[in-house]
Amino acid sequence: MELSPLESIKLFSQKISFLGKLDKQDFLEDLASTPHHVLGYRKRARLIQYQTSKSVKHNIYIVPSLINQYYVLDLFPGCSLIEELLELGFNVTLLDWQNPRPQDRFASLEEHIFELIDWGFDLSKENSLNEKKWSILGHCIGGTFSIVNQCYHQREDISFINLVTPIDFDNNSILSFWSKKVPLNLNLMVKQWGQIHHEFLQLSFRLMEPMDNIQKYKSLWKKANDRAFLKKYYAIDHWIKDRMDFPGRTYQEFIERFFRENNFIRGILELKGKEIQLHRLKQPVLVVTASGDHIVEENSAKALCGRVEGFVDEIELPGGHIGCLLSQKSRNLLTKKIEEFIEVQYAH
Predict the structure, then answer these.
(1) What integer is the mean pLDDT of 280-300?
(2) What sign for the dihedral angle of Cα 66, 69, 74, 75?
(3) Which strand (E) or helix (H) includes residue 96?
(4) Measured distance CA(320)–CA(328) in Å, rounded
(5) Which residues touch 235 (CB under 8 Å, ≥6 apart)?
(6) Residue 43: other Cβ atoms inside 10 A
(7) How far apart are CA 75 and CA 64, in angstroms?
(8) Could you tell me which residues are beta bridge partners of residue 79?
(9) Exposed/middle/buried for 4, CB within 10 Å: 0-12, 13-18, 19+?
(10) Architecture of domain 23-345
(11) Span 209-260, pLDDT tens digits
């Protein structure tokens, strides 16, 4: 039923008044609140172990993205992939990159891919009762780094879960286009800034989907009286704004070697004096894509298929790059698939 002009004005006034009186902090009290403790610190990073009362059947070491804070994986109770993995009986540890320190502007790609990821994995194993059964879940760039790490080390008895993870950087995504066609002087950026500012990174993602902000506020307006919606809205909004800077040297090396030259998929990526050959990857990988992902294209994530020696399984989730983690339906599909994937790998 269409409202009269007077009724529309009244409704508008009521919603503005209601939203203006809200204390956003009320919706953020249990952000990233799954019980955990810190196992240790190394340079910029810390290692978190989540607490569970379940009998542990398998271990999952999570390597998050370097661009966002990790807690999109543990937003709040009822909207947490980590919480659901614990419920299934997994021991979960997570490498929290944290915000880079001033001296991390000089930290190299190798330090992140090897020193920090290796440290987190080794410490995770030291604090596990069942150290033989392990999977590494890499989120976005964290997944890229984890696969590169494995191609170097060739660890045995391990499987991988690539969660919206780019592998082939020569694709039709806007990020791929910008990295090659926009004449960014990376040397100058690193020299002037030290760290690549999170404002620059955030603007890049906003420009990819300029209508998202309009849609976001439109949804807020429509559901202003829905507290469950508001809780998720403000939690996501807080996470989006809680960005991390990207260490300058690592950013430059990553953009040049992966985005511009696509060295990993070409088999000419050299790290620690050794060529990193993707085709030698023997361990099983679960490739997770999202149907509406405009950041990591399906072809980029699935570039493992047919290129590695090991078994590759796949699942496509509904939602976008972030939305696939926030939807209960998507998380249910994901956790069920992870459980099946791991059970198959360790059935014999």
Answers:
(1) 94
(2) negative
(3) strand 90-96
(4) 13
(5) 27, 28, 31, 75, 76, 79
(6) 17
(7) 14
(8) 76
(9) exposed
(10) 3-Layer(aba) Sandwich (3.40)
(11) 655 665 665 666 677 677 888 888 889 989 988 889 999 999 999 999 998 8
List Cβ neighbours of 308 (8 Å cut-off, separation of 6 or more): 278, 279, 280, 281, 282, 285
Q: Are 317 and 334 in contact (CB under 8 A)?
A: yes
Pairwise CA distance, residues 273 & 287, whole Å: 28
**CB within 8 A of 201, min separation 6: which ones?**
67, 243, 246
Please answer whether residues 300 and 179 qualify as being in contact, where contact means their C-beta atoms are separated by less than 8 angstroms. Answer: no
DSSP string, 51-94: ---SPP-EEEEEE--SSS-GGGGEEETTEEHHHHHHHTTEEEEE
pLDDT band at 91 (very low <50, low <70, confident <90, very high): very high
Nearest-Å Rg of the Cα atoms of the chain is 21
What percentage of the chain reaches a pLDDT higher than 70?
83
Task: In whole angstroms, give the CA distance from residue 223 to residue 162.
Answer: 34
Place of tokens 């919706």: 27
β-pairing, 269-271 vs 45-50, is unpaired
